[in-house]
Amino acid sequence: MSQSLAAYLRDKANLVEQHLLPALEREEVPVQLYESMTYSLMAGGKRLRPILVLATLESLDVPIERGIPYAVALEMIHTYSLIHDDLPAMDDDDLRRGKPTNHKVFGEATAILAGDALLTRAFGSIAEAYLNHPEVKPENVLRMIAELGRRCGAAGMVGGQIADMEGEGRQLQLEELEYIHRHKTADLLMAALRGAAYLAEAPPHMLDALTRYGLCIGLAFQIQDDILDVEGDTALLGKTAGSDQSRQKATYPALIGMEASKAKLNQLIYEAKQALTAVGLGDSILAPLADFIIQRRH
Amino acid sequence: MSQSLAAYLRDKANLVEQHLLPALEREEVPVQLYESMTYSLMAGGKRLRPILVLATLESLDVPIERGIPYAVALEMIHTYSLIHDDLPAMDDDDLRRGKPTNHKVFGEATAILAGDALLTRAFGSIAEAYLNHPEVKPENVLRMIAELGRRCGAAGMVGGQIADMEGEGRQLQLEELEYIHRHKTADLLMAALRGAAYLAEAPPHMLDALTRYGLCIGLAFQIQDDILDVEGDTALLGKTAGSDQSRQKATYPALIGMEASKAKLNQLIYEAKQALTAVGLGDSILAPLADFIIQRRH
């Protein structure tokens, strides 16, 4: 990864992190619940979804500050999904980002409720933050909320998680694996890009290109995750390497082999950048961000 | 309960129930997830929150059809909260509305995700339904979403559930019990009333009165729940009577005695109706709805 991209990612992650806690409610919130929510929200991570919001606005020549409430809401949703996915009834993970998972620290009941509260706050905080915003039309905020609802709901991220669990321990078709990757990961990335496009009042052809870009990097991200689970390092990953295999999870390397998986990954990144070039965003920060997907080691 | 109120409740519940399934997504939703969501959403119940939305609009001389998407979203949120509250890690209930609880039928993982998907869909469906609505300003929809987020999040319903669990097995102060009742139950009723008021573009004094009414009937509802757990009938309740006592849950009757609980209940209903009378809604359908709270047997 180039020095400048690394600096960009660090800067933007820092900016987002400054806005996470202030976006939560505090008054009337039971202490244990607040601590459980902030434990996971502030546990680090790449902050990729928020960064995509800011990078999209920057690419469209819109002040990135406008995207912060939406960026923060996406990170709340991503965090809730990790908390719930780690639960004993789901993936039963003890370690996340190198720290004990939420339910290991706060207990299952609190972890479930902390996830519920983060999901709820994500939607509420978008509505609050953009109500009476001088630059953002309220109908575009409704479009963002509708988009987010679809991308992280039953036909999106939640559907992907169900399909992922149903697929454990049995041989999947490539089509099924793509359904999982698309919904479990790509949908929320697409929501980041499309939501930012609404904030920027981008025209339809731009929205389409960003959607295509989001789908490609989302699928690539998940294939890279599969590859890292085989080739990666537990210490760097912050979670147990080899866990997919040990729980007989369908992955790209398992299904089509490591070489074909890497070729697919490169093809997707190429397509993502093609989508940008077609609408004049080939030189924007979104292009090196796509490369980052395949360069990352955790 | 009067014949006419019974008919009103039945009619409105039927109307709401016709709109529940059409408000869910179907395409791209895994079958098992869809079945789990609809199992609980269509399991009956009083549909009190949706009815409050429609009754408020009727009282304010606004066509009730305008409230249906919001009413349906509230029922989704109420249903998600029941699914999650019933989980083994939480209240560990086997029976709900006379049927096996969601996780007993679909397993814990699916139950958690079905709740997540219903909560997500609630927010998304509001945004979708009211986007480009001819009678509803988009900024009022954002106010509704912000309100709903606060009332059902960490400082609202989720906070109430955490406090309820934390309080199990120990002696609570009346203040703690009121926190639980207010947030676990009254908040969502207040969201129903206030959301309907935004849809009707009601003036601030009307909004205040409806909030007061909602708080009073919400607290009354929960006290009546406590009373029914002692005096009620398992068959009618659709859940196990006496379960509060057996799990050493703090209740009004346990804390201040049965007689004082009933006096408090009557006082709250009186106050609720006073709030209506003060803004000229004393003869509206909301008045007998308050009485219904103390007359109900399940």
Write structural notes for this entry.
Two copies of one chain form a homodimer. Chain A is mainly α. Chain A has a single domain (3-295), classed as Orthogonal Bundle (Farnesyl Diphosphate Synthase). Helix content of chain A is 71%, strand content 1%. Chain A has 15 helices and two strands. Chain A has helices at residues 3-20, 31-41, 48-59, 68-86, 102-106, 108-130, 138-152, 157-167, 174-199, 204-231, 234-237, 243-246, 252-256, 258-278, 286-295; strands at 95-96, 99-100. A two-stranded antiparallel sheet of chain A has the order 1-2. In chain A, β1 (95-96) and β2 form a beta hairpin. In chain A, α2 packs across α6 (108-130) and α3 packs antiparallel against α4 (68-86). Chain A is globular. The model of chain A has no long low-confidence stretch (mean pLDDT 94). Chains A and B meet through α2, α6, α7 and α8 of A and α2, α6, α7 and α8 of B.
Quickly describe the structure.
Two copies of one chain form a homodimer. Chain A has 298 residues and is mainly α.
User: Which assembly state applies to the chains in this document?
Assistant: homodimer
Shape of chain A: globular
N-C termini distance of chain A: 13 Å
Instruction: List unreliable stretches of 5+ residues of chain A.
Output: none
CATH superfamily of chain A: Farnesyl Diphosphate Synthase
The CATH architecture of chain A comes to Orthogonal Bundle
State the total count of DSSP E strands of chain A: 2
How many domains make up the coordinates of chain A?
1
Helical residue percent band of chain A: over 70%
